[in-house]
Each structure stands twice: as C-alpha cells, then as structure tokens.
Amino acid sequence: MLTDTSTSAGRAILLHDRHPTLEELADTAHLLAARHPELCRVRTAGTSRAGQPLVLLTIGRATATDSVLIVTGAHADEFSGRAGIVELAHRVLAQPSLHEAVTWNFLLCLDPDGARLAEAGAGTRSLPEYFEHYFRPAAEEQPEWAPAIGGRLPESRILLDLIDDLRPSLQFSLHSADVGGTFLQSTCDLAGLAEPFAKSAAGLGIPVETGPYDAFWLREAGPGVFMMAPHHIDQQESSTGMLAPPHADQPHAGQPDTGQPHPGQPHPDQQQETGGVRATTWFAPQCYGGETVIVETPVWASAHLGDTRPADDPYARLTACAGQVRERGRLVTDLMDEVLPHLDDTALLRAARTPLTASRQLAHEWDPQAAGQRLLHPTPMTEARLAGIELWAHRIPVRAVALLRRAAEAAKAPTTPATTRLDHLLQDWCAQYQQRFQPLWLPVARQAEHQANTVQAAVALSRPTRPGFRRDR
After folding, report:
1. How many helices (H) and strands (E) does the chain have?
2. pTM (2 d.p.)
3. Could you read off the pLDDT of 39-67 as tens digits, one per residue?
C-alpha cells in the first residue's frame, strides 16, 4: 500500500485499523492539495439537504485527455470506500503514468447527512457494535437510488451535474457490506477485469461472492463480476419494494396518512416521470460514452458465499428464509406500532420502513409456494446463491430492528416492554447472523487495497489503446 500515514486518514487506516472519519477525509484532501498544488485541486461541488459540503478532490494535469470519477458514501452505512480513495489518491500521485493522461476525480462523500447519522459505526470492530450505531437512509433518500423512484435530492443532482461536467469514461461507486464477500456490478463488460479482480481478492484473503442476491438475475461475466442490465435490476428491485414509491399502496405501520409525500417521495403527479434503474446515477455516464463499475467489499468476510456446487434442498431452504424474514418483519412492525406514539417523523424512523417493506416483498419473492418458484430454476441454483438469500434473511431484519431501536433511543422514548424487546431482538438476531456466517474482520488496509486494485485495473483496461475494451450491454 502507498497510503501516507502523515495524513489523519492514513493514520486511521494503517495505524488504527479503522475507517477514516469525514473530517479525516477532508483533511487529507486539503493536505494533498497543499503538497501538490500543480496536480491537486479541492472544491465544493454543492451542498446537501442539511447544508453540508460535497467535497471533490481532483488529481491530474490540465493536458489529460480522459477523466474518471470515483464516488464514495452513496450509502451511509458503508465506510470502506473512504479508505479506498485515500489509498487510490496516494497511488495516483506516486505514479506519473497514472495522472499524465487521466484526471482522477474523487467525490469524498455523496451523502454527508446520512454519514453523520452513521458516523459512530465507522470505528466499530464487532458486528453487534456496528448495528448498535446503524443507519442507512430510506430508499427514497439515497442519492444514487432516489432518481429511480422519482426522488429529487440535491445530492443526486450534484452527482448528475458532475457527470455532465466531467464526462467520465468510467465512474466507480465504492460500496461495502457488513458481512459477505467481494463482487462487481458493471454497466459494461470490461474484458479481462475478472482476472485482476480475482487475483486481488485472493492475494488479500477476500472471498469472491458468486451468488449475491443483489445480482441474482444479472449475467455473470466472470466469478463475482455481474453485468447491470436495467430490465433485470428493475425486475429484482420491484420484488424487494425498492422501486415502489414509499407508502404508495397504503400507510404502513409507523406512518401517519397525511396525504402528503414524505421527504424524497415524488408527488403523485410526478411519478410518471420515474425511469426505473436507468434513471439512477449509475447509467448517466452512458450519455457521453462512459460506464459505471460498482465495487463491493466486505467489512467482515465470510467463506460461505462462493460455493458453486448445486444447492442442497433449495425448496426447504427458500421456505425457511421466507418464513424467517416474514416473521421477523411482523415482530418489528408490531413493535413499531407500540413505540410510534413516542416518535417523531425522523430520518431514523423513515429509514426503518425500507427494510420492513423489503421484508414483506422478499417473503413473497422467496416462498416456493408463491413467486419463489421461479428462483428454483436459475442455471444453476448454487449453494452460493442460496447462501446469498440466507444472508439477506438475516441482514434485512437486523437492519429494521437496529433502525427502530435508534429511532426510539433518539426520541428518548420511555422504557417500555417494546423498547426492551427491541434490545433483546437486536442482540439475538446479531448472534444468529454471526453463528450462520462466521464473519471475520477484514483489516481496513486490505479493504482499501482491494478497492484501489480493482479501480486501477479497470481504468487500465478501459484506455482506448487497449484492444480488449468493449461495452456490451
């Protein structure tokens, strides 16, 4: 690694084995610009809903003919990208061949408002502690995703304007998961990327996830490398409730029916403009011949997600997953009804509704006696695919109970049987999650190195002089 430990972000990564804070990221960007004024520039690309700056670090020469954009912080609960851009920025500065012809643009955090609510989780080392501080905004308040359901967030507009201005040949969105392996999703087929991606993962001891439910219907170009076909993503996200405008069908538990859209929710007369996943920021570079690669890296690695053998007893296991997510969703919904009189309509409460909606939809999607019948016949139904579904059956309810618990805590709700029950469920479900997947902490330096390796390999492969570059959609 080339990370400079004289910066606060570098010290966090290499000396303290934790993800940098937002302040440490900004500190590093400004320090690099001060050290390398001929190469580095820092500017504010815009401000968030709460007035926080979205900071852009640019590295490159004015004569560069190509541009790439690296986005982090799209999801507030995902911190690996912060470390990844620190490592990548130092690599670019250390190797003239990387910055002579390409301008590198690093958006330090797309959603600083959400990041502030999740910040206490950035320094955690255990899964229960991570979920104790957990925050991930409601689907309609996530800047990358909001345009898919007609949301008009300033952060989405800032990123779309950056894409219009920079016209990047490649946009990278750096993501991470609590428990899992590494995988890629791309709007194009970068011929040859699967090899350096797999080599990086193997060298760093990171399992490649070959059956993530996020990419269940996507074409696999290589182990853990998936092509983002819009119609397949729309199909999948409709099944999880992510494409449905929130509360479109009926008021759910915890949501008073005021007749007015919630923050980020499109007004009914605007919903016909919704473009599905193609309207997200992922597909925007295609207007200028560019593409997007999403890099997923685990914080706690699990070896159970890369088994390509045919699945054992998939019908029974799908039935169990559907039953688990349905029952746990019902428990959290009942508890939400109990604590609701003590809660205001906050970002935490709105966030809790997204995994509850997903719980209802996923139970139907996985149940072999309902829509789940079609899941039994992909080619092939592997152990990895079923493990990916089982992971979601644990992750989604844990998110729901963690978010509702924080909403009650923030509102200083009085101690009641309901709040005590939330604490118990969070501890119990985290323990079961850990027991099933045996997660192992992945040092932050390795998370960062893998993301940087993957981005660097993709940029090298995409250069126009490389004959292997093709954009198959």
Report:
1. 14, 10
2. 0.91
3. 999 999 999 999 999 999 999 998 898 99
